[in-house]
Amino acid sequence: MNHVMVDLETLGTLPGCAIMSVGAVFFDTSGLGDEFYMVAQQDSCIQAGLTIDADTASWWAQRSPAARRVLTESLQKRRHTLQHVLAKFTEFVERDAEVKVWGNGADFDNPILACAFAAVELKQAWGRWNGRCYRTLRSIAPGPKLLRVGTHHNALDDAKSQALHAIELFKLHPSLVLR
User: Fold this and answer.
1) Which of 13, 14, 148, 158 has the most crowded CB, counting CB atoms within 10 A?
2) Of the candidates 74, 127, 136, the residue with the CA atom closest to the CA atom of residue 104
3) Are 163 and 170 in contact (CB under 8 A)?
4) CB-based contact 46:18 (threshold 8 Å)
5) In a domain, 40, yes or no
6) Has residue 51 been placed in a domain?
7) What is the pTM of this model?
């Protein structure tokens, strides 16, 4: 498998915003593979120069209790510096030299990750030419509605939901090839 669906939970909507968590899963048309999930310390994001958007922070206050778990103190022991999270994410995706990293929106997950890698002075784990957009796939390959698995706004659960939907779309549209 050389495709990875990534999902971020953030405290903003633009590149340069703080990342709360990174979820990812390898996939191909046969199914899902290895998974990745880590929570970042907010103070490490701020120290790296990333920002928190007040409107997004307010939006989080209105999410389900399950989704807000990423914000709670109970996860404090499981939080890591942003640099550590991105270094571990790099190890996760570098299993394949030609890994393709899918995000939900050409203007969201992948650009926010690229900015975060730069902020902590780490090399992005995949070639810029190997960024992929799940939202674009959904628009050019219509099919059944996305079915959510797990908790909506949990980075790993959202990544798995999107990957399963992408697999379904590729199977419905054989002219589109997952390479």
Assistant:
1) 158
2) 136
3) no
4) yes
5) yes
6) yes
7) 0.94
Of 156, 103, 97, 155, nearest to 125 (Cα)? 97
The single-letter DSSP state of residue 145 is P
Give a yes or no: residue 129 inside a domain.
yes
CATH code of residue 48: 3.30.420.10
Nearest to residue 18, comparing CAs of 75, 82, 101? 82
Query: Tens digit of pLDDT per residue, the chain (179 long)?
Result: 999 999 999 999 999 999 999 999 999 999 999 999 999 999 999 999 999 999 998 998 888 888 887 766 555 567 899 999 999 999 999 987 789 999 999 999 999 999 999 999 999 989 989 999 999 999 999 899 999 999 999 999 999 999 999 999 999 998 888 88
Cβ neighbors of 126 (< 8 A, separation 6 or more) are: 93, 99, 100, 101
Domain extent at residue 162: 3-172
